[in-house]
């Protein structure tokens, strides 16, 4: 049997974006002795939360999946976006967070997150002074630098993300229809390309939309660097990593002012749109970005995967 001090980590969060990227960057940097929890199957399946897990060890998940039977589990809640999804889909998330996540977090007494925006929302949601919410922050790959070679091509805008409702992508596609010389490159999961092609065709802009998938950080950095601006029209975000990656390459971001997490990241390194769904306002922002391209200074500090890992190590150490 492993010693009780050993931390068991759910390593099933693995990929190139979002929480998957977070896990990929953080886990190799941890100095806390740990081993994989060794689970297979879909970590987001409805019954996964009921699985038998070791009770003699502290568990850690780089994402929001929690286990009802865990004696203590440190969870990373990147955001609470799922609690704001439309009905009836929201019902399952409300049940999961109330019956699984909140009890696990309260039992452990501490939870991790990635931004001050998310920290404030989680504090309000927990409504429990006995639970400490720790902003471990987030990092940015060294590939995203202002001196990278820009990708070639006519002036274009960059979008990185997916087509979920809170990403609010349709307003940018609609705005593109009103700016005849505007071009858009979209990095999307390959499974969403067919839907994106249909959305572009419906608006008559297929010839001006280029879809990307499966590129590495170095290639993505070049696409950011070559863009006149990155568009991030999200109405909800826990952090907004594409916004950070973009400004790190010196490329400004067009975003909705009301998305607090993105505004926190971008600051004055972009252009804030006042109305999330105003197509003409977005079209105006796009025209402005293309007519007067500018470079922005990347943040001097504060986004370091090593620092994030150190904060997680320290929190795990307090719990062991």
TrEMBL record:
Gene3D superfamilies registered for this protein in UniProt: Glycogen Phosphorylase B
Domain (Glycosyl transferase family): residue spans on this chain: 144-293
PANTHER family per record: GLYCOSYLTRANSFERASE WBBK-RELATED
Keyword terms of this UniProt record: Transferase
Highest taxon above the source species: Bacteria
Name of the featured protein: Glycosyl transferase family 1
MF terms in GO: glycosyltransferase activity
This protein's record includes keyword Nucleotidyltransferase: no
InterPro entries (UniProt xref): Glyco_trans_1
One example of a Gene Ontology biological process annotation: lipopolysaccharide biosynthetic process
